[in-house]
Design a protein that fits this description.
Keywords: Cell cycle, Cell division, Cell shape, Cell wall biogenesis/degradation, Cytoplasm, Peptidoglycan synthesis, Pyruvate, Transferase. This protein is an alpha/beta fold. The chain has 15 helices and 26 strands. It folds into two domains: 227 residues, Enolpyruvate transferase domain (UDP-n-acetylglucosamine1-carboxyvinyl-transferase, Chain, Alpha-beta prism); 210 residues, UDP-n-acetylglucosamine1-carboxyvinyl-transferase, Chain. The protein binds uridine-diphosphate-N-acetylglucosamine and phosphoenolpyruvate (PEP).
């Protein structure tokens, strides 16, 4: 079994570079399906398990996908005749597989994708995606574990109001509307930077879309789209994770390629907590409090530009070190507190009250064996391990690998005492022997 083992107590210093954004590259690769001619070359592609999965989804549909992980590029040629199905084996691994629905429906008038189930952070339905397609004239059929969308001829432009600004629904509806007959006006849509990145790519492919990054997006349908070259924006959540790593260890880290404008809510909370954040030419410099004293604060997760739910668990790790009472309220997902139990195993003092977690800090964190419950929980447990007494062992790394490129290696390059190991689960090791072995390996 693979584990990450962290020995707490090391300050982080130096420079680290963030990769292209997972949540931008997945819709961009899905959108490449729409191009009936030409080739797309996508650069700044992070080498993540999710990128391998979306590439497989496309290959399974007869798209030529050529991923060069050494160059961080993906070349995509979707000009073949494609099949229009995404089976459960992919959707189960990665919910973002549902993002092929919009592009396939736009290009072929048909798409069949396994229904995504719930996941560790909530039930995550796709009703808003489907309502949008229906408003454009598609017939939706849900049965036998699949959702199938069909339209005779082209979709029709429509006025669509989203009940909530869902990121995935905004992306799927924009992609479907790109080839619709007429204009689609999408209101109350998501404003995340990843939406803007997707729209920039679609416009390079020949689409006519305005308003991305605002509440209303206007899509004038065109007859066809072609391949285009595009560079993925930096990952604001990976950047935010390193910001917390610097802050929690009282270090001084330059996070290259971090985009300050995408991180305003995170920067503002860190500053409230007594962390210094400086904008530099190459990125963001984050310096932990000189007196070592982090201040308690409250956060409420919200759609962009509010505080991102994908940074909630990392901030929770930081709040555990802050003096006083901090409150985190999760409003985006119904059940994104699974990591609280794992933090408690590390001696964290906190309680859940409805959609909020109340944290009494600072907690004297102790190393323990903990399991990642989702991707950001994995990162948060590693962050807590950086300041815990003794060794923290984090398992279930499949979650981490979906969204972070070599997080352990990058933290080690900044001075963390951290290692990824492959341990045989059949060998039972006494705690003291285990510790001796680790001391030999890490010190
Ligand atoms: C690949 C990707 O980009 N993933 C991000 C995307 O996920 P994703 O696109 O799945 O998130 P959404 O914005 O759609 O979900 C937000 C909320 O809306 C609800 N909802 C959504 C769609 C729908 O049809 N009906 C419905 O009720 C969801 O259950 C959730 O409670 O945005 C989330 C919110 O910022 C992030 O945490 C994810 O990292
Ligand atoms: C929840 C996340 O991703 P996904 O929507 O791909 O599950 C995330 O990136 O934290």
């Amino acid at each position: 079994m693979e584990k990450i083992i962290v020995r707490g107590g090391h300050q982080l210093n130096g420079t680290v570079r963030v990769e292209g954004a997972k949540n931008a590259v997945l819709p961009v690769i899905a959108a490449s399906l729409i191009a009936s001619e030409g080739k797309s070359i996508i650069t700044e592609v992070p080498v993540l398990a999710d990128v391998y999965t979306i590439n497989e989804v496309l290959r399974n549909m007869n798209v030529n996908v050529n991923f060069d992980p050494d160059k961080n590029t993906v070349e995509i040629d979707a000009s073949n005749d494609l099949t229009t199905e995404a089976p459960f084996e992919y959707v189960r691994k990665m919910r973002a597989s549902v993002l092929v629905l919009g592009p396939l429906l736009a290009r072929y008038g048909h798409a069949k994708v396994a229904m995504p189930g719930g996941c560790a952070i909530g039930s995550r339905p796709i009703d808003l995606h489907l309502k949008g397609f229906e408003a454009m004239g598609a017939e939706i059929h849900v049965g036998n574990g699949f959702v199938e969308a069909k339209v005779d001829g082209r979709l029709k432009g429509a006025k669509i109001y989203l009940d909530m600004p869902s990121v995935g629904a905004t992306e799927n509806i924009i992609m479907a509307a790109a080839l619709a007959d007429g204009t689609t006006i999408l209101e109350n849509c998501a404003k995340e930077p990843e939406i803007v990145d997707l729209v920039n790519y679609l416009n390079k492919m020949g689409a006519k879309i305005v308003g991305a990054g605002t509440e209303t997006i206007r899509i004038t349908g065109v007859e066809k789209l072609h391949g285009a070259n595009h560079s993925i924006i930096p990952d604001r959540i990976e950047a935010g994770t390193f910001m917390v790593a610097a802050a929690i260890t009282g270090g001084n880290v330059l996070i290259e390629n971090a985009e300050a404008d995408h991180l305003r809510s995170v920067i503002s909370k860190l500053e409230e907590m007594n962390v210094t954040v400086k904008e530099e030419n190459r990125g963001l410099r984050v310096i932990g409090p000189k007196d070592g004293k982090l201040k308690a604060t409250d956060i409420k997760t919200l759609p962009y530009p509010g505080f991102p739910t994908d940074m909630q668990s990392q901030l929770m790790a930081l709040m555990l070190q802050a003096k006083g009472t901090s409150v985190i309220t999760e409003t985006v997902f119904e059940n994104r507190f699974m990591h609280v139990e794992e933090f408690r195993r590390m001696n964290a003092k906190m309680k859940i009250e409805g959609r909020s977690v109340i944290i009494e800090g600072p907690s004297e964190l102790q190393g323990a064996e903990v399991a990642a419950t989702d991707l950001r929980a994995a990162a948060a447990l590693i962050l807590a391990g950086l300041v815990s007494e003794g060794y923290t062992r984090i398992t279930e790394l499949k979650h981490l690998d979906r969204g972070y490129v070599d997080l352990a290696g990058k933290l080690a390059s900044l001075g963390a005492n951290i290692e990824r190991v492959n341990e045989d689960p059949n060998v039972l090791i006494q705690a003291d022997q285990d510790n001796k072995r680790m001391i030999a390996r890490l010190s």
